[in-house]
Amino acid sequence: MASNRVHAALPDPPNQSEEEHKAEQKAFENFFAELESVDLPLGTTLRSIYDDQPNAHKRFMEKLDARIRNHDREIEKMCNFHHQGFVDAITELLKVRADAEKLMGQVTDTNRRLQEAGREVTAQTEEVIRCRIQQRNMATTVEKLQLCIPVLEMYSKLKEQLESKRYYAALKTMEQLEKVYIPRVSQYRFCQIMAENLPRLREEIKEISMSDLKDFLESIRKHSDKVGETAMRQAQQHRTFNSAVAKQASMGHYTKPVYSLNGRTHTPNGQLMDDDTGDEEEADEEILTAQDLVDFSPVYRCLHIYTVLGDRETFENYYRKQRKKQARLVLQPQANMHETVEGYRKYFNQIVGFFVVEDHILHATRGLVTRAFTDELWNMALSKIIAVLRTHSSYCDDPDLVLELKNLIVIFADTLQGYGFPVNRLFDLLFEVRDQYNETLLKKWALVFREIFELDNYSPIPVDTEEEYKLVVSRFPFHDAEIEKQDFPKKLPMSQSVPQIYTQVKEFIYASLKFSESLHRSSTEIDDMLRKSTNLLLTRTLSSCLQNLIKKPHIGLTELVQIIINTTHLEQACRYLEEFITNITNVSPETVHTTRLYGLSTFKDARHAAEGEIYTKLNQKIDEFIQLADYEWGMAESDGRASGYLMDLINFLRSTFQVFTHLPNNNNDHASMSGKVAQTACMSACKHLSTSLMQMLLDTELKQISMGAIQQFNLDVIQCELFASSEPVPGFQGDTLQLAFIDLRQLLDLFMVWDWSTYLADYGQPTSKYLRVNPATALALLEKMKDTSKKNNIFSQFRKNDRDKQKLIETVVKQLRSLVNGMSS
């Protein structure tokens, strides 16, 4: 091996020893062994020969020559050893060649003679073979033709079936060709062509049947409206029939039918019941089913074809996918659907038609659509329908349209419920639609109430005859024994708007009741709905209209008083409204969960608002008269009579309070009500007048007041006190009304009498003569008079004649300031 090779150094020059010569000889032998080995690389060996050795090339060539000569001698010895045997073999071969040539000539001659002798036999034999081959070919041909003819006949039959569009039979023929006939003759080219054409024909059949399916889908999309209309009409007729049946059953003149089929009712003995009129029979006969309106054969044919082709799943997926797309299109409403009931009806018809078709497909086919698929479609559709109805119903502001929408939803729900679809969510939606219906009713009745209030004259209703009285009483539950005893003509305390409002509330209850029909709700639930909607009408709509009416500027004090009387009568009529609802629903008002009407609080609030408005308008009128005051605050002495503006104000108050006293008081409630309002209004007016006069004296813009102005002001206050003492409104005890001016009276007495010593001495005592005089008020007024004295007005005589008087004023001012400072600290 290369790893075991020993690379010896080249030998030294000729004078080397015997041992060195042997070593050199051995080294060269190793080199030659490596060179003679063709598997080993020569580069390493040659490098070892020439590395660092003088005369290495010469010695190597010498040794190489000696090696060659040695090999030549060995080759020569080997050739000499085998030469004699080679010569002997050549000699024997030359002897055999002559015999072989002789034998070849004999064989050739024998073959020639044999060919000449058998030439005729060969010709006859070939003729026999050719005849035998022809016979075999003819038999084979007949046999193969017998196999091919049925194939060709079947293929011809296939072509005829395709031309006549009998695709399902054509597929069966293809199946026979593939499994029975073609395998028998599959080796023929025409059969191979047939076999290659069959998949193409199947694809054509699939495409044709799919085209028919697409036409069918387009057809049912167009006919869904008609199918849905028919189904909903059937449901509506069935609903009407059931209502009539229930009515007859309640009267005891009806035998319950066993079943109903195609709009015709069958009795237990199998006879058809005769309808009341021939028109109803004609209507029943004219009703068409989904099968009458839609040709379902393309679906059946396509389903069978894809089933035979083993591609039923693809067909089912395609059908369901397309129906889902159509469902989304059907569920998409028109933008203006909410404007008319026809828009809603068309929308519902399309949806019903869609699901009626799906229900028929579900029951007429096996597995094309499943109950799970139709339920999924219905749940998706139901969510979309509810969202659409919520949106579009919110745009409706006509209660009649909302009511018609409700009826459509009920028929729509009943129709689909008859086909097994759950519709509970639709009936839940009706509660939301009911709220929308109530909102539209409230808006409509708000306009009605507003119009009634605008047309009312706010005067008691005059009644001239018994008929007129009965007419009013028939419209409004009014009972008063004293008024009934009076002779005609007479007046009823309320105005014309009261019976009109009461009638309209009853009309609202009827309108609200219409929505509750056909909702499959109990009487208790209907009663609760009616009461709640009526409460909304009273507490929100009517209350808002009353509040707006009261705030209108053209409504005067007389009208406000009449409004108070009207609200009292309406409040008393609330119990009759409750009885009215009870009579409609037959639900006892003692039921635990019965909702009460909130009309009492509504009319009480309106009455309080009217009373407050009376007080406000009176005060505003007083302010208008006060603004006409034109005092000459620097006058030396008074005119000796009260101011003109104040006398006008007092006359206005007298005439105003006479309105209260002239109200009809033949009813104790009315009398107490009007008396209480009059007393409160009178007290409020006197207090407001007193406060306004006090503010006039203490006005910061008023810098100086003379004693003459104080005297003139005192005359005006005296007139106010005389008015209060004249009992403008009956019912006040003692001098209660005069106490409204007590602050002004004590203040003016203090300045008129100039009784400062008594005021300062008794200040803070409960028995003080000037108990209601505030030190700050007295100081402010005294400061205004002090400034006047400096300008030689009312105190000019005091300064000239009695200097001590001026010092007294200054002393009083100081003491009042100390009292004011003491109060503030």
Describe this structure in words.
The structure is a single chain. The protein has a two-stranded antiparallel ribbon. The protein has a two-stranded antiparallel ribbon with strand order 3-4. It starts with 17 loop residues before the first helix and ends with a helix. It has helices at 18-36, 43-50, 56-163, 167-181, 189-251, 278-286, 290-293, 297-308, 312-331, 341-364, 371-393, 399-418, 424-455, 466-475, 481-485, 497-516, 523-551, 557-572, 574-585, 599-626, 644-661, 668-697, 707-725, 742-753, 756-762, 775-789, 796-801, 803-824; strands at 259-261, 264-266, 461-463, 490-492. Residues 1-15, 250-285 and 664-671 have low confidence and may be disordered. Among the domains are: 296-421, 5 helical Cullin repeat like, CATH 1.20.1310; 441-613, Tetracycline Repressor, domain 2; 629-823, Methane Monooxygenase Hydroxylase, Chain G, domain 1. Helix 16 packs antiparallel against helix 17 (523-551). A hairpin with a 2-residue loop joins strand 1 and strand 2. It contains 28 helices and four strands. With 825 residues, the chain is an all-alpha fold.
Radius of gyration, Cα only, in angstroms? 65 Å
Structural class: mainly alpha
Tell me what portion of residues adopts beta-strand conformation: under 5%
CATH H-level superfamily of the domain at 629-823: Dsl1p vesicle tethering complex, Tip20p subunit, domain D
Helix content: over 70%
Alpha carbon gap, first and last residue: 132 Å
At the fold tier of CATH, the topology name of the domain at 629-823 is: Methane Monooxygenase Hydroxylase, Chain G, domain 1
CATH architecture of the domain at 629-823: Up-down Bundle
Major pleated sheet: 2 strands, antiparallel
User: Quick check: average pLDDT?
Assistant: 77
Shape: elongated
Biggest sheet: strand arrangement:
1-2
